[in-house]
Amino acid sequence: MASLDLFPIRLSLIVATSATLLALLLGVPVAWWLSRKRFFGRSLLEVLVLLPMVLPPTVIGYYLLLTVGRESLLGRAIESLFGAPMVFTATAAVLATFVAAAPFLVRAAQGGFEQVDPVYEDAARTLGRSEVSVFFTVTVPLAWRGILAGTTLCFARAMGEFGATLMLAGNIPGRTQTASLAVYDAVQAGNVERALALSLVLTAVTGGALLLLTRVGNMRTRQRHGSV
Amino acid sequence: MRDASRTASSTTSGDAAGNPASTALNIGGALSVAIRREFPGYTLDVAFDATSGVTALLGPSGAGKTLTLRAIAGLLRPDGGRITLNNRVLFDATHHIDVPARDRRVGFVFQQYALFPHLTVAENIAYGLHGHPRAERAARVDTMLSLVGLIDLAARLPRALSGGQQQRVALARSLAPGPSLLLLDEPLAALDAPLRKRLGAELRALHDRTGVPMVLVTHDPAEATRIADSVVYIDAGSVRTQPTEDAPDDRHPSR
User: Fold this and answer.
1) Minimum-distance CB partner of B75 among A125, A129, A133
2) Are strands B80-85 and B214-218 parallel, antiparallel or unpaired?
3) Could you tell me if B207 lies within 8 Å of chain A, comparing CB atoms?
4) Which of A155, B130, B227, B243 is deepest in the core (most CB within 10 A)?
5) Of A133, A205, A152, A136, which is closest to residue A20 (Cα–Cα)?
6) Beta carbons of A186 and A195 less than 8 angstroms apart
7) What SS3 class is residue B214?
């Protein structure tokens, strides 16, 4: 057997990590907003955020194709701005993976924020801290368990993403073919060795990443365990 | 032990909806409050002045005492009225002034203390000193720790402390930034009877040492009398009457 082409694994890791970081950046504020504020259209936003969890990934991909595809208004704007379309690129894979996986982070982080008694935030305010400072020094440290759980779920979902990515980024070996797509291709082509090798490497890498995230959680717990 | 002097300049606030501030007597007190806030089925309508000493807001639970404290601290926005502290306007509905809680320099001791569970005692006390240089901050934390007699517990987490110790940390934390006023919401309610008496006296002593004006909420008339210089009686969301020696005992929560 020729040496295993690890490009799909590398691409999967890059895409999943980018999508997860993007989900942290955008999803955590949304989760906080949903947990703390009562505003008009809140239920609608909540449903909209969670919809990708229940929609078939192909439907998510199709909607994204309608939104940023070459025929769409946004797609044409992107094409004239960057000189190339976004669809069938690694960037498209990140976008599709982000939309499919971010709801898991929002959901868990929102639960984490709802566990934080607002009295701690009030106390911080009376001690002269700005809203941003309150968020990072009180709210996030007290909600970290939910945020970490959400990050883990989001990353796991991102590594396994298939349908939405296929629709928006295609299945181009060496360009947009992620690990899950490569395994599917290998099986279809009857290349059992490649399918097995990719699956095993993917399992080891993903398992390692999850182990790392779990250990971060345990470390925080031990470190903050009070002595009596 | 000192007697409550019964000279709180509270007003009955039947006309507080109009211009309540004008009806509140100003006897040179540190704090002047005249606020109104509508809730579904309930109206908070309170006007009183507090001196630079210790003032007790007395009344049954549900009377709006805590809401009043929250409004003074900037954690609850009244619909109308005015709040001034040492001639500084903290809130004025007619002039659209609403100083945010972080800029009011008003300390708050919450009923369950609300100590940050992820920070040590020292870190809790230092939390309000974020603008100060590191060395100054450490010195200030030490001063506050010795003020409340907890210097040995600096590295503990709040959950490793007794109720009385937690209360002292909450006091130290709120006093550390040097507030112009300290608000205390049922500061002794979470403690058992013998400790209540002792920490009540400590609270009084703390005021005498720091000189920071205090407004504390309680539903216990004896406690109010024991700790405070003056007493303001709040019931059903309004300042109703000047309290007398025996009045509060036969009152019932109307809400």
Assistant:
1) A125
2) unpaired
3) no
4) B227
5) A152
6) yes
7) strand
> What is the nearest CA distance from A59 to chain B, expressed in angstroms?
43
- A7-36 vs A140-160: helix axis angle to the nearest 10? 140
* Residue whose pair of structure tokens reads 């945010």 in the numeric block: B100
> Length of chain A in residues, anyone?
228
Question: How many CB atoms within 10 Å of residue B192?
Answer: 9
In b/e form, how buried is each residue of B4-26, taking b as 16+ CB within 10 angstroms? beeebbbbebeebeeebbeebee
Q: What is the DSSP string of B72-103?
A: HHTSS--SEEEEEETTEEEEETTTTEE--GGG
For residue B171, the SS3 value is helix
Instruction: Enumerate the H helices of chain B as residue ranges.
Output: 20-23, 65-73, 121-126, 134-147, 163-175, 193-210, 221-227
> Does A36 lie at the interface with B, CB-CB under 8 angstroms?
no
**A159 vs B: CB within 8 A:** no
Tokens of B25: 């007597």
3-state DSSP call for residue B42? Answer: strand
Q: Which residues of A touch B161 (CB under 8 A)?
A: none
Tens digits of pLDDT across chain A (228 residues): 456 788 999 999 999 999 999 999 999 999 999 998 888 888 999 999 999 999 999 999 999 999 999 889 899 999 989 988 899 999 999 999 999 999 999 999 999 999 999 999 999 999 999 999 999 999 999 999 899 999 999 999 999 999 999 999 999 999 999 999 999 999 999 999 999 999 999 899 888 888 888 888 777 665 555 443
ipTM of the complex: 0.82
CA separation (Å) from A216 to A25, A78, A148, A150?
A: 19, 39, 9, 14
A119–B112: do the CB atoms touch at under 8 Å?
A: yes
Cβ neighbours of residue B76 closer than 8 Å, sequence gap 6 or more: B37, B67, B70
Say if residues A165 and A93 touch (Cβ distance below 8 Å).
Answer: yes
Q: Find the angle CA(B3)-CA(B4)-CA(B7) to the nearest 5 degrees.
A: 140
Residues of A in Cβ contact (< 8 Å) with B101: 122, 125-126
Say yes or no: A26 contacts chain B, CB-CB below 8 A.
no
Please name the helix (run of DSSP H) or strand (run of DSSP E) that holds residue A79, with its range, or none. Answer: helix A73-82
B232: which strand partners?
B57
The whole-angstrom separation of Cα B55 and Cα B36 is 20
The pairing of beta strand B214-218 with beta strand B88-92? unpaired
